[in-house]
Amino acid sequence: MSLLWKLLLTMIFSCLLFCGHVSAGNVKCQDPYYGYCYGIPLKCPPGCPKLCEVDCKTCKPYCDCDRPGAVCQDPRFVGGDGVMFYFHGKKDKEFCLLTDPDLHINGHFIGKKSTKGRDFTWVQSIAILFGPNQLYIGANKVSHWHNSTDYMHIQFNGHDVTVPLGSAQTWLSSETGVSITRVGQANANANANAIVLEVAGLFKVRARVVPITQEESKIHGYDITTDDCFAHLELRFNFNSLTSSVNGVLGQTYAPGYRTRVKMGAPMPIMGGNDKFSSSHLFSTDCAVSRFGSKPDGLELVEDLPIVTCRGNSGARGMVCKR
To answer: What is the pTM of this model?
Structure first.
């Protein structure tokens, strides 16, 4: 490609980025390495019309909540094996999402009573323990939601962490390998309420704070009132060095030889196990299946986590994934 063409393409992409209007439900690749895609507004898929991500390599938008390692909605999980399931837990209680000798993750569930025989629940915050360190990511209570206001609360070892608003703004702890970076999302301004948190060699999680909208409340019968929009977290994990003993609501799905217990093909496949996954408080490692801090003989690292391909990225029921 000639230099003239490169300059022309750069001007076109710059105009799309800075001159074009990005409406609610659009998303852009923010990695300038992918110049052919960088800054171009892309429409979110039907399954996640207001919140989606973009694969800069293929220049296609996708629903992050449909990928393995996702914890979204009320709460809807996609396991490491690619199987989607729901774990409702119980409101105002804590449950172990993942437990391994070097990593433990709990989630605090908020919710409302319903007439359907269970609570409506969402993950309001998570606690991540690794070595002597403790990370907290939570959604503040919100009555009236504003996209440009940051409602995410982050703490590291008991101290508040402030990540400046703005694309690619980063907070770094070089001693522990923790980095927290602001990322963009559709239907939001100033990169508020969305981060990528990474602990080098252990895991990466994309976290964002989202509300329950009046439209969602009407469709699902949540009966959300104007005093609390039940802001909660949507999460997607990638793990680097889990062991074969990994457990937890999500963690068990990464164990070698794991076979799902949920009823495949059901409109809402439910994962039980409240008792064995329950924790006494958010930073506790006392759930019945806890592995944190243990080093049993013969433990093997899951060196190569399975590659999972999925069909049905529109977010519709019947998503099919396979190793």
So the answer is: 0.81
